[in-house]
Design a protein that fits this description.
It comes from Adlercreutzia mucosicola. This protein has a single domain, classed as 3-Layer(aba) Sandwich (Rossmann fold), CATH 3.40.50.1000. The chain has 177 residues and is α/β, with parallel strands linked by helices. Helix content is 38%, strand content 13%. Bound molecules: magnesium ion.
């Protein structure tokens, strides 16, 4: 796999079809980025539709571990709130955090996928660790200055690749707050 090419590309986590894109692919363990993947950078909250999607995925048998480069208390606060294991200060794209998260879940490379919004951390890190990566468009435009700079590189690498169309668009839209 090309290191900087996401295996799948979605506009939002709710566009990942839990049955088809996770369970159906045998990917029952998800190493999940936080900032601008499930937590909007501007309002510091999990959008309602994202929270509902996480709940549904867990009911269906998908297990998550939060993996974040964030050095503040956000990952642990969120992990407690969502009752999910956490690997913070992850230093993605380096592999140790992904491997630690897999150990927390009892996961293997065959049943794990990384979901995140950044090429240089989530996608590259997943591939270096030997895992597939589902990339999302960031929840909001607002982000850290160095991340915004990297977005230009991402745009150059992704070119005109568009996020995948939603299979059941009414369902996804209906869940929007
Ligand atoms: Mg992120």
């Amino acid at each position: 796999m090309a290191l900087l090419t996401p295996d799948r590309y979605f506009s939002r986590i709710t566009c990942v079809d839990i049955d088809r894109d996770l369970i159906g692919c045998g990917r029952i363990h998800v190493l999940l980025d936080i900032d601008n993947t499930i937590l909007a950078r501007d309002i510091r909250e999990i959008p309602r539709d994202v929270g509902m999607w996480l709940g549904r995925a867990r009911e269906t048998g998908v297990a998550f571990c939060l993996v974040s480069n964030n050095w503040h208390d956000t990952p642990h606060r969120l992990g407690a709130e969502l009752m999910m294991p956490v690997v913070a200060k992850a230093m993605k794209p380096l592999p140790p955090a992904f491997l630690a998260a897999m150990r927390k879940l009892g996961a293997t490379r065959r049943d794990t996928v990384v979901i995140g919004d950044q090429l240089a951390t989530d996608v590259l890190g997943a591939h270096v660790a030997g895992l597939p990566a589902y990339m999302l468009q960031p929840l909001v435009e607002q982000d850290l200055p160095h991340t915004l700079l990297l977005r230009n590189v991402e745009r150059a690498i992704l070119g005109d690749r568009a996020p995948e169309p939603v299979a059941n668009i009414q369902q996804a839209e209906g869940e929007r707050p």
